[in-house]
Amino acid sequence: DQQVKQNSPSLSVQEGRISILNCDYTNSMFDYFLWYKKYPAESPTFLISISSIKDKNEDGRFTVFLNKSAKHLSLHIVPSQPGDSAVYFCAASGGNNRLAFGKGNQVVVIP
Amino acid sequence: GAGVSQSPSNKVTEKGKDVELRCDPISGHTALYWYRQSLGQGLEFLIYFQGNSAPDKSGLPSDRFSAERTGGSVSTLTIQRTQQEDSAVYLCASSFAPRSGGNYGYTFGSGTRLTVV
After folding, report:
1. CB contact under 8 A, B108 and A96
2. CA–CA separation, A44 vs B109, rounded Å?
3. Does B80 contact A at CB distance below 8 Å?
4. Is A30 helix (H, G, I), strand (E, B) or coil?
5. 3-class secondary-structure state, position B63
6. Which residue has the higher pLDDT, A14 or B39?
7. Cβ contact (<8 Å) for A46 and B56?
8. How far is A30 from chain B (nearest CA, A)?
9. Residues of A in contact with B42 (CB under 8 A)
10. Inter-chain residue contact A97 with B50, CB threshold 8 Å
């Protein structure tokens, strides 16, 4: 049962434009959300997180938005750069010690 | 070490054989996690260690899977009588404590790519 869902498995965007990645979750107990970035043949690395007490968290070119009523979060990358080409995983936690991950979104930034 | 180390990086095994995957976490990290990623799937939680004990084994897919951790450090994931559906990338992560820090404190290893033929 996939508790964290990432549809639209791949996204292509022109350099300098905005990349928007979406993530939906089903477990109302989730209260902490994270995005990880993964290059081919490398391990996932933490990108940005948000607590359920917030609806927005920004870090440089990366902003995560949380809509708790819709059980939806999104990651905005602006402006997109070629180095942003990677797989992005959405993850969520509900107070226990595990993270539930989505299947990932492949982002390709076209120079 | 400076990061989470996993070995082997690649393993090809025949169906029915046993395999052992090793994870060497960052020194001082008390929490250790095993995940796997099958083709086209997200990261699937397998097991979590706090010190040497495993309070959450609920993600282990069958009794062919087991894991242990010794000395609060190295962990071994063992898969007995491997099946083709066990083929996946097995990722280990460690952190100072469960749910620590704004990023959850997870540092992932590079993974072991297991192929069962």
Report:
1. no
2. 8
3. no
4. coil
5. coil
6. A14
7. no
8. 13
9. 2, 4, 6, 89, 101-104
10. yes
Among A34, A45, A100, the residue with its CB nearest the CB of B45 is A100
The token pair at B47 is 């097991």
How far apart are the CA of A104 and the nearest CA of chain B, in angstroms? 6
Read off the pLDDT of residues B73-115 as tens digits, 9 standing for 90 and up. Answer: 999 999 999 999 999 999 999 987 665 554 566 889 999 999 9
**What φ, ψ does residue A56 adopt, rounded to 5°?**
-155, 140
Side chain identity at residue A32, one-letter code? Y
Q: Which chain A residue has the Cα nearest residue B40? A: A103
H/E stretch holding B77 reads strand B75-79
Eight-class DSSP state of B86: G
β-pair type (B43-50, B31-37): antiparallel
SS3 B84: helix
**What are phi and psi for residue B57, nearest 5 degrees?**
-110, 15
Of the candidates A87, A104, A105, A101, the residue with the CA atom closest to the CA atom of residue A25? A101
